[in-house]
From TrEMBL:
InterPro entries from the UniProt entry: AMMECR1, AMMECR1_dom_sf, AMMECR1_domain, AMMECR1_N, AmmeMemoSam_A, Uncharacterised_MJ0810
HAMAP family: AMMECR1
Any Pfam family hit: AMMECR1
Organism encoding this protein: Methanolapillus millepedarum
Protein's UniProt name: Protein MsAc7_16740
Family matches, as NCBIfam families: AmmeMemoSam_A, TIGR00296 family protein
Domain AMMECR1: residue ranges: 9-196
Domain of life: Archaea
Length: 199
């Protein structure tokens, strides 16, 4: 089994941890750990937490690289997605019962092999997310974005460059492109059943 593969119960716990962390902050309480988490939660790994309110994006923040334990990354990403995403106002307590929580556990980013003309052959829609880096700019789109938006590989590359604050074709002109894989666990309805999404 891959070091980065989560069992279903582990993914469910990750979503519960993210929701519990946000609820604690909304109640002006210190976030509490879930006791006896599986060992996987102590491994360093990348993660993103995505929040939707009435089906619309309400926050999405995470860490593409494994720079802290999965447990800590989930908690920090949950707080950031709820209260620090610059695209949105902070979540308010009165709205949180309408929010669905999603956790995407990531593999380590893998740089695509040049030349850029081969990039599209190295990207599988529904399997890979993309990250683009150029100097101080960096942007990442999760695997589910390409599926939800109907992107092909070229559009996915261009949109990830735009997310990085670059021109759409920057992937042809020296920007580094990485692919990542993700396991996605989300609530079907706010605070409801948690399932693994298969793209």
């Amino acid at each position: 089994m891959s070091k980065y593969h989560l069992l279903t119960n582990e993914g469910i716990l990750a979503v519960k941890l993210a929701r519990q962390t946000i609820e604690s902050m909304l109640n002006d309480e210190k976030p509490q750990r879930i006791p006896n988490l599986p060992l996987n939660f102590q491994e360093d790994r990348g993660v993103f937490v995505t929040l939707t309110l009435d089906g619309e994006l309400r926050g999405c923040i995470g860490y593409p690289y494994p720079i802290m334990s999965f447990e800590k990354a989930v908690m920090k990403a949950a707080i950031s997605a709820a209260f620090e995403d610059p695209r949105f106002f902070p979540i308010e307590k009165k709205d949180f019962n309408r929010v669905c929580v999603e956790v995407t556990a990531l593999t380590i980013p893998e740089e695509l092999e040049p030349p850029f003309t081969s990039y599209t052959n190295q990207i599988q829609i529904g399997k890979h997310g993309l990250m683009v880096e150029y100097q101080e700019n960096r942007g990442l789109l999760l695997p589910q974005v390409a599926v939800e938006q109907g992107f092909d590989s070229i559009e996915f590359l261009c949109q990830t460059c735009i997310k990085a604050g670059l021109t759409p074709m920057a992937w042809k002109y020296g920007a580094k492109v990485y692919r990542i894989e993700g396991q996605i666990f989300h609530e079907i309805e706010p605070n409801g059943e948690i399932v693994e999404e298969k793209l």
